[in-house]
Fold:
Amino acid sequence: MANSFKNSYFYIGYIRRVFLSLLLCFSFGLTYEFDATWIENWQKASEILDTLKISKKQKEDILNSIKNSIKALKENENELKELETLSLCVKNGDIECAKKSIEKYPKLLSYKLHPYGSLLTVTLNMKIDKTKVDAFDEKMFDFLVSKGHRIYGDDNMLPFLLLLNEAVSDEKCLEIIKKMRDDGMDLGITMPHLENISLDTVALEYYKPKTAAYILKNGQKSQFFNAYPLKIWAHIMVFFTENNASFEKELKATPKSIELSKSEKYKKFIDKEFEILKVYLEANGDEKFIAEIEKIFTELNDKESLEKLEKLGYKLKKDNLENIRRQNLENIRRQNNGK
Structure:
């Protein structure tokens, strides 16, 4: 279990780092520079890809896609210049400016700015560090769609970006994912070049329960779906670690961790995890790994969370119930001795 925690802990931010790195590579397509500056950027893109856990073939495929995308744009200089203007209008949230470019060249709405990104991706900004926050220009997004921009073409990156972005509400994300499905998107798609990252688990991971429920109901569950309770287990462990209340070896609760489990901060955090766990169980997720979450609640003597597990239909383990009984007797004994 220690190895599972270690792997889960580092995986929590891995998906986001991969997306940000890939987008940084693809953003070179927005500069439209084909001289020494572009060559330098190309080398930077290659270096960034070297830091990701992808194969040599995957790296070559990505770089070739970037090259082909830029080559196609270069063939029409006038549209290329206008596309650069339009992308800046979208980036700056200037709808009137974007309207002028689209009226001049309606075809621009069908162009990709890079291998996995249409203009819609420019409406999304993701934080790189804790000093910044995610952003989503919903008005610009809706404007581009109203002008005829396909909400889904062959761009498998966009739905993942929507799920990852904290500024996109669960409700808005669900609305867009539904339209993408109507536009031909398979809900079983995986992230380009990273086949172990799927829509269902990303929706759960980034706390979009309504969207996750829709994906799970209408799409095929990924091979990693049934192991998702281990992610929740890891989230709980990280929560206690970040709040300086780590468990001891073999998951033994400490006075600090027990004290934290009685706080409003913990209750707010755990309610969010239960919301996701509810979606998981309603989608007939396997219960076997939930026993690991139950052990945490048992160690903390968190009766309220254990009751919630039962209300979700999970049957508590007999040995864990016995542990709680012993803890309650011990607490009564201590209280009596203190009188």
